[in-house]
Design brief:
disordered N terminus, about 30% strand, rod-shaped, Immunoglobulin-like, alpha+beta, about 160 residues, 7 strands, 4-stranded antiparallel sheet, 3-stranded antiparallel sheet
Length: about 160
């Protein structure tokens, strides 16, 4: 297939690469679907109270994107469908994608929020404060609840 559109740099100092590209087109008969796998790029930002994940999903409608949190793993998946006719030169990628992230212990997985606009999916994962371990003092005599439980246990033994 002959390309009708010229590349932005018409000087073409590397004609060899253009010729090589044409040969690959012949070999694959323009069916480069195995080489055109779509992979959703993601940026992850963190501040003191949440993580913000931004996924680039151009050309994918919101209805074709799924988000799930299960067993402390956040999964985002979907599909960018191929809308290109058979006899076309294709550089854009398409296909099914899936990204999975293990959430840390301080993630509030039940409070994950998502927003999709202009081909960008933003997922906010709030953090919860992890309390430090509390040292328990060992006393010489039982007090409070422990005293009541031990007293009740002694009364049952006597009866």
């Amino acid at each position: 297939m002959r390309r009708e559109l010229a590349r932005w740099n018409d000087a073409r100092p590397f004609n060899f690469f253009d010729d090589l590209d044409k040969e690959f087109e012949k070999v694959f008969k323009n069916d480069m679907s195995s080489l055109q796998k779509f992979n959703a790029a993601v940026d992850i930002e963190e501040d003191e109270d949440h993580w913000m994940m931004s996924f680039d999903l151009p050309g994918i409608p919101k209805e074709d994107v799924n988000i799930e949190v299960k067993d402390n793993v956040l999964r985002v998946w979907g599909e960018r469908k191929n809308e290109v006719k058979k006899d076309a030169y294709v550089e854009r990628s398409f296909g099914r994608f899936e990204r999975a992230f293990s959430l840390p212990k301080n993630a509030q997985s039940d409070k994950v929020d998502a927003h999709f606009e202009n081909g960008v999916l933003r997922v906010a994962v709030p953090k919860v404060e992890i309390k430090e371990a509390k040292k328990i003092e060992i006393k010489d005599k039982p007090e409070g609840f422990l005293n009541r439980m031990l007293s009740a246990s002694k009364k049952e033994d006597v009866q």
